Each structure stands twice: as C-alpha cells, then as structure tokens.
Amino acid sequence: MAQKLNRIKVMLAEKQRTNKWLAEQIGKDPATVSKWCTNTLQPGLETLAKIAECLDVRVSDLIREPKDM
C-alpha cells in the first residue's frame, strides 16, 4: 500500500477543482495527476510549487507531516 505523502486530492476537493483542471493548469497528463491524487506517484518540488500556486495554497498545505501518516 502506498504511503499517503501528499494532500493534493484533499486540496482539490476543498477548492472544488478537478484532476483534469489541475492537469490543464500545470501542463501535465491527467493520468499523472490522478496518480498523484492516489499517492501512487509523487510530484517533484517544482511541480508542487506550481500546484500550490494554482490552488492558492502553501506548498506545506500539500504535504502530509510524518505525524499525520
């Protein structure tokens, strides 16, 4: 089972945005964004920064703290 390292899915839901919308905003394949949302794959730091900017949140809002895992 993959560790839930990011909170991208949660933040998208809070901002009422979809995986497809995010993929279009940052120029990534929707399948890649889906893998991030299921924590099958993790985005790089530069990509996390782009995601945070699109969602108007801090990068730290997209990452789970070790105590939360």
Show the helix and strand layout:
Elements: H1 8-14, H2 19-26, H3 30-37, H4 45-55
Characteristic terms for this protein:
69 residues; 49% helix; 4 helices; mainly alpha
Structural summary, described in words:
The protein is 49% helix and 0% strand. By secondary structure, the protein is mainly alpha-helical. The chain is globular. The two termini are 13 Å apart. The model has no long low-confidence stretch (mean pLDDT 92).
**β-strand amount:** under 5%
Class from secondary-structure proportions: mainly alpha
Oligomer classification: single chain
Low-confidence blocks of residues: none
Radius of gyration: 11 Å
* Global shape: globular
Give a quick precis of the structure.
With 69 residues, the chain is mainly alpha-helical. It has four helices and no strands.
